[in-house]
Specification:
seven-stranded antiparallel β-sheet; about 50% strand; mainly beta; about 200 residues; AL/BT2_dom
Length: about 200
């Protein structure tokens, strides 16, 4: 037993510090810790967070109640129907008008992993067409976003999509928010999310 405990202790100590410091943003049961903006649908099904076009088919957002400045965020998403969505960093909302920067989540060829500034300069950087092939349509995708100071880096399924240094982003503060894009009749948006985890950087 003594040797067994020693081995267990060694294994725990060998886990990288950052892996130990990640904590869940979504509890897999309900929307605790988040606030909805707009009429679009956000709900939990089988431990997954789902966004889906509602009756108005307009933009909608689900934002964290806490604000985050410097962090590493990891998550998995699966696009169903029209998968146009996104992850906002350092964002602020008034109704459904958002200020901040979006790491794009979109169908193939629509710049998933790129960074877009809403109600501002528009596209700041897009991934190369070759890197965009990292997206797996109709399957689960793993995204990682690192935000530190004035730098933002995104990865999709292990491929670095973009790296951006921007003074305006460096000055920003706010929440993390998930977006559902507006839709047209017959072209509704639906995206599944899971394993949302964050490591706050000192």
């Amino acid at each position: 037993m003594k040797y067994f405990l020693m081995i267990c202790s060694f294994l725990l100590l060998s886990i990288p510090a950052k892996a130990q410091e990640f904590k869940p943003l979504f509890n897999g049961e309900d929307l605790s810790g988040w606030t909805e903006h707009g009429t679009e649908r956000w709900y939990v099904e089988d431990g997954e967070l789902i966004c889906e076009s509602g009756p108005d088919k307009e933009y909608g957002y689900l934002r964290t109640n806490e604000t985050y400045k410097d962090f590493i965020l990891t998550l998995d998403f699966k696009q169903e129907s029209n998968g146009n969505s996104g992850v906002f960093i350092r964002s602020n909302l008034e109704g459904t008008k958002i200020s901040g920067w979006q790491v794009e989540v979109a169908p193939m060829g629509s710049h998933t992993g790129g960074i877009y500034e809403s109600y501002g300069r528009g596209w700041l950087i897009q991934p190369s067409p070759e890197d965009e092939k990292a997206l797996k349509p109709d399957d689960w995708n793993h995204m990682k976003i690192r935000v530190e100071g004035d730098e933002v880096t995104s990865w999709l399924n292990g491929t670095q999509m973009v790296h951006l240094e921007d003074e305006k982003i460096g000055e920003g503060t706010g929440s993390i928010a998930l977006q559902i894009h507006s839709a047209t009749p017959g072209n509704e948006v639906k995206v599944r999310w899971k394993n949302l985890r964050i490591h706050v950087l000192d």
